[in-house]
Structure formats: structure tokens, C-alpha cells
Amino acid sequence: MDQDLSLLAELLVAFFLVVGGFFALVGSIGLIRLKDTLQRLHAPTKASTVGVGGALIGSMLYFLFFEDQLSFHELLITLFLFLTAPITANFIAKTYMQDKIRRKDLPESGRDYGWALYDHPPEMTEEEK
Amino acid sequence: MLRRIFPHPILSLTLVLVWLMLVNKITSGNVFLGVVFGIVIPVMTAPYWPNRPSLRAPLMAVEYALVVLWDIIVANFEVAMIVLFKRHDKIRSQWVVVPLELRSPEAITVLAGTITMTPGTVSATLAADGGSLLVHALDTDDPDAVRDEIKSRYERRLMEIFR
Predict the structure, then answer these.
(1) ipTM
(2) The pTM is what?
(3) Is A54 exposed, middle or buried (0-12, 13-18, 19+ CB in 10 A)?
């Protein structure tokens, strides 16, 4: 690779690393600044999307430009992250709600049954079983 | 016959692709091993998929992924502004109730996951009969607008994908 192109590639890789790092930092600041657990839950979703995403795109570009190979591990990390991160967040939210939030603090579900945290699900009919 | 070897073709294909991406090198041995996984794992996990979801519109799924990706990027900037510059007694967090038209558990899982991964909203819990979703919005003045956006951007597309 000639000199100019390699500089451009380096700049591109650096750009994505900086973007990723910036959002990871903002996510961490959010964890400190926001006032309750439910609000804090919003902060890591940034770090785990654009924060990690930026670093991964940087890594893929690095391997593409400087090692001359396509690396798929980054795509897999993204895939696994999108599968696991929402579930973790959901468990934290539910545990917190069970502990700290009473059902009258929540809006009505608009259904015959209340929220699953406080109400039992309807009985299954024979057909559904 | 084909149906018996591949009870879940999409899962089989995903497993082969994920295996090839894991080893990061495409050789005939790796492809063979991937295909073995693609056959054995769906058969072994079949009891966990009582009614397997069917993907009706694969192109729509691609569109959905792109829309979500774009929304994640835009929402990241919005939430970054809120976290960095908004005084925290001015942040108005609210609950948003999203009535669901989706019925299949897989589709609702995808919707709830999407809502959580989009910064600014986290899905908290479902109604006990699965008919509506409780979402926590970090900062909004208009919960109805959040609800309408979730319904029109995500749920409408998922309805077509998981028909």
C-alpha cells in the first residue's frame, strides 16, 4: 500500500476508535450522573451499541487494510451482543421494579390482566396446551 | 425427507454461517463441520421450539435491520446530549404503554430487544396476557408520540416479517 493510502486508512481506523471511545465514555458518565436505576439502565445501551460498534468497525478496517484479511469475529461480537444485552437489561429492570416499584406507580396495562411482574398469566385453554 | 434432516432451515443456515465466522477461515473441513452442527443442533434443540416462527419476508427483515441500525445511531446522539448537558432534575422519565398487535412470542421478543437496544427506551415488562408492553423512556414530554413511533416504525414491519 502506498504512503497516502495507508495514512488515509490509519485516519479512518482512528476515527472509528475515537467515536467508539467517546460513546463508551458518555455511557459511563451517564451511569454516574443519572439519578435512579431505571434511568441508569439507559446509559450502557449507548456503550454497547455505538461504543462497541465503533471499536469493532475500526478493528475490521484495520484487518482489511493492514493484514489483508476479512475478519468476521467483529460481526459475531455484534450478533452476540444484540442477543444478550437486551436480556440483561430486562432482568435488571424487572428485579429493580419488583423491589422498588409498587403496581400503583405504573400505568394501567390496558388489558384484562395487569403487568406480568404482579399478575399471574391467564390459564391456558386445553387447545393452547 | 429434507424436512426431517433440516427441521429448522434458518437455524441450520445461521449455525453454519456462525461456525464459519468463528473459525474465520473457509476450508472444506470447516464447511463440513459447520454442516454437521447445522444438522445436529437443530435436532437436539427441537423440543425448545414448539411452534417455530416462520420468516415470511426476508427482504423486510433486512430493511428492518437497517432501520434499527439508523435509529440506534441517531438516538445515541440524542441520549448523549441528554446525559452530558441536561440538568438531571429536568430529565423527565416516563412510562410508556405500548399495546401490542403482535402475537407470536418470538416477534414480541425481537420488538422488546429492539426497544432496549435503541438508546432512550428500555422495555421493562409485559402484561400478563402478553397484550401490551411497558417501556421506560429516559426523557420525553409526549409518551403517546414514543408509543406511536414504536408501533409505526418497528411493530408494523415485524407484523409483516412474522406473519
Answers:
(1) 0.81
(2) 0.84
(3) buried
